[in-house]
Write a structure and sequence with these properties.
Largest sheet: 3 strands, antiparallel
Strand order of the largest sheet: 3-9-8
Structural class: alpha+beta
Helix content: 10-25%
Order of helices and strands: HEEEEHEEEEEEH
Distance between the termini: 16 Å
Number of strands: 10
Bound molecules: S-adenosylmethionine, zinc ion
Shape: globular
């Protein structure tokens, strides 16, 4: 997210451990996906670790169609009467990845003000990586750090509410800067 919405998305701790047996976890670690999308206590669907994930590990790529901010603004006009929702992920000042089109399950990762993941953009690709060791069952989060073109007024902050529930939650998905 950026121009209107600049979403440098991200994560938190907590979350309930799923019923994954030790044997299943080992099998998944070797052969299967390390993460899964399911209902989140924070918002809608979220992404959860199926296995323990080591600090620094590359977890998943955020995929989506590469579009310009001008296209994003045309396709996803803001409705000031509703809390905002976006699957756009900022690549740079000109481009975003649109998780609505050709996106993968990384688009379900929620924001937290106390994230356990971060994004790393390498050669135009967005990778979600572990900021710390993550236990199987934890929800994945990164800090969206959404930056609007307009000032981050209290009204704008309320349009991007954060429900992460962490101590120190800034109450909004918007970045701190203004
Ligand atoms: C990329 S989607 C994440 C998936 C989302 N949970 C869903 O089910 O569609 C981003 C949107 O999820 C919501 N969201 C993510 N993290 C949130 C949080 N900590 N508090 C409130 N809403 C959140 C916001 O509406 C945000 O624009
Ligand atoms: Zn928060």
């Amino acid at each position: 997210m950026a121009k209107k919405k600049s979403a440098k998305k991200s994560m938190s701790s907590g979350g309930s451990r799923p019923g994954v047996s030790a044997r299943a976890a080992v099998k998944q670690a070797r052969n299967g996906p390390k993460v899964v999308a399911r209902k989140s206590p924070v918002h809608g669907r979220g992404m959860f670790a199926l296995v323990d994930i080591a600090k620094g590990a590359r977890i998943i790529e955020y995929k989506g169609r590469k579009i310009t901010w001008a296209q994003a603004d045309r396709w996803y006009a803001d409705d000031d009467t509703k809390p905002s929702h976006t699957f756009l992920f900022t690549l740079d000042d000109r481009y975003v990845l649109d998780g609505n089109k050709g996106g993968n399950s990384a688009r379900w990762i929620n924001h937290s003000c106390k994230p356990n993941c971060e994004s790393d953009i390498v050669d135009g690709r967005i990778w979600i990586e572990a900021l710390r060791n993550i236990k199987a069952g934890e929800e994945l989060y990164y800090d969206y750090n959404i930056t609007l073109e307009d000032p981050h007024t209290p009204a704008e902050k309320r349009r991007w509410p954060c429900l992460c529930g962490n101590k120190g939650c800034r109450g909004t998905l918007l970045a701190k800067k203004r």
